[in-house]
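Q: what sequence does this backbone want?
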C-alpha cells in the first residue's frame, strides 16, 4: 500500500497524505504547502508517508 501512497504523493500530494493520516492538521498543512508550491507539498507528503511506514 505504501507504494500506491507514494505514487499519489508525487501526483497529488494531499491525496497521499489523506490516505496516510486522514483529515488531520498534517493534511491541511500539506494542502497549504501544495498551493504555495508544488514541490514543498511533495516533499512533505513523502516525508509523512515514510514516517508512518515504520
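A:
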Amino acid at each position: 500500500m505504501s507504494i500506491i501512497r507514494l505514487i499519489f504523493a508525487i501526483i497529488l500530494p494531499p491525496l497521499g497524505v489523506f490516505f496516510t493520516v486522514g483529515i488531520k492538521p498534517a493534511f491541511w498543512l500539506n494542502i497549504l504547502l501544495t498551493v504555495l508550491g508544488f514541490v514543498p507539498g511533495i516533499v512533505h507528503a513523502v516525508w509523512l508517508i515514510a514516517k508512518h511506514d515504520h
